[in-house]
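Practice problem: predict the structure.
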Amino acid sequence: MAFDNPTLTDRDAVLDRLRRVRNNTAALITPLSSEDMMLQSMPEASPVKWNIAHTSWFFETFVLQVEYEGYTSFHPNFGYLFNSYYNQVGKMHPRGDRGLLSRPSTDEVAAYRAHVDKALFSYIENLSSADFSRLAPLIALGIAHEEQHQELLLTDLKHCLFQNPLTPAAYAEAGSPELLSAPEIRWREMPGGLCEIGWNGEGFAFDNEGPRHKVFLHPFEMANRPITNGEYLEFMKDGAYDNPEFWLADAWELICEEKWRAPLYWREKDGEWFEYTLFGERLVNPDAPACHISYYEADAYASWAGARLPTEVEWEAAASLFPLEGRFLESGAPVSPLPAGNDDGDALLQLFGDVWEWTASPYVAYPGYAPPSGAIGEYNGKFMSGQMVLRGGSCASPDGHLRLSYRNFFAPNARWQFSGFRLARDCEK
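Answer:
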């Protein structure tokens, strides 16, 4: 982890940021019932109640219990219930059984959060300047960790509510934003050569975003935008889910076993495709980025289209030339107008905050990476096996997490995150 942002080394700024993040979590759960917050639809998707308790457990375990001599734990067994995967901290409740925890109640979890908040804010306010400087990186990590769980709360909740045939809306949609047409797909030429990727030392970053290092790139081309629902429908109509030619061996075995025929959350009714969103079920918008796609499906589409997925090095090198622009609502409507682009197709659009974009890169350590010592070292490093990297952030990602070097990672079969993709291809020789 890193913590060099001068606005967050100021104690008042840190307290304000912490307060806003904790309040944002509370706002996300306000429309939900206690029954909503207990659901767990698969081992990978935790109940809302568990997510909001776990984020308090993080501050309690790594800050208050270690640093605050006068702190009294809220409950002696909450460490076991709400530890996620930190083996150095202690044993944990089985991940797939979190939905069986009807107790503690949502009210007791709310009381737990209030207990941690009271102690945490008091502790930070009374730290000496030296101790605050020493603990600021850990507090910043806790803030970023809670923001990550806000995103997970939404993706996990969506997967849970999708199991309900009533297709309930979790949230009320504000107004009906104008839907924009997707621009023509064009290719941005990248000359290749020696480039630098990784965290540049400014602001907050997770430990796996560095060290910054040099990589040699061959010339390539990057598509100017992600693949849309309409384009993915053509892939489906062409019978690609029935053609092993385009699929990796593990992928073909999976789609045959699971009978995948469309992106997650899509349903066909009377010849039309609908998708489930957190605002309820909607007609599929053909111009919105294709979403809830696995790496396997993204790779198969690329093969079908005569292209490939970009590596994460290619993605970052290309994205570094463009500002953070464009952001879609989960229902497929843009929050703000997207840049029109240039007639020559040079602009790369929708890089940040629409859908996480799969890359062709396995999740491994950068050269020179070493995890932090202690239990915090289990945050990222131990997952560097069997997963693929995604870049860019999604409509559910907090604004502060939309940065060039941010590396997300999931198993290649994962579809419940807001994941899509754009294409790349080698330059013609």
